[in-house]
Amino acid sequence: MVNNVPSVQDSTESHYDYVVCCMKNIQDIKPSITDIIRQAITLGKTAIVLVQNGLNIEKPIVEAFPTNPVLSGVTFIGSHEPSPGVIEHTFKDIMLIGSFDNPNIDQTTGQAAAQDFATRYSAGRRTDCTYVEDANRSRWEKLLYNGTLNPICAVMRTDTSSLRLSNSIEGLVRPAMEEIRAAATAKGYELPQSAVQKMIDIDSMDLFFKPSMCVDAIKVRSPSVVQLP
Questions:
Q1: Which domains are assigned to the chain?
Q2: Cα–Cα distance for residue pair 179/144, rounded to 1 Å
Q3: Where on the phi/psi map is residue 169: left (φ > 0), alpha (ψ -120 to 50), or beta?
Q4: What is the largest CA-CA distance in the chain?
Q5: Can you tell me the distance from the alpha carbon of 151 to that of 212, in angstroms, rounded to the nearest whole number?
Q6: Which pLDDT value is given to residue 84?
């Protein structure tokens, strides 16, 4: 473990095959991701893996490193911090990995890097990493969850199981997911209605899982709590 991002700028022989970015993607906050990872990137060699949520997050990376493959990592993982520094994983890490479009390099280069990363990431058999051809489609599908259940649970200070046991799914969650599905259609991504139900049911009922936004909201100890009907 190191305290600083290692530099390969002065090396003519060694380089990193992959640099994996798992921090929150907040592009308005400095330093930017490109600034943080720049000294670890070898132009034309290092594949940059964005294990982050959001649409169009690859654009500043492709602009900064035009000759490098940029990969999309979409994850589904349940984890909790019951006490400081103690992390509990409630179910298996699932990742969908694909290659973002980079017009500066051959498409097969990014695809090969994504397929190789999927093999490496799954090698320990404790993760399920699957290569997907359309990186942005998997991001729209994840947005069905992150754009609805995540903020709704945060506002109501509740978990996804409690939502499903109330009438909030039909009154709040499903209509919001359908709006996102319509936006995806407008951008050329036809998500089936079954994708909506899949995201509604994705968390096991016995977990009473609080998404990350809800956890963050609870940590600020706000006194206002919305009661479920």
A1: 18-133 (3.40.50.720), 139-219 (1.10.1040.10)
A2: 9
A3: alpha
A4: 64
A5: 9
A6: 83
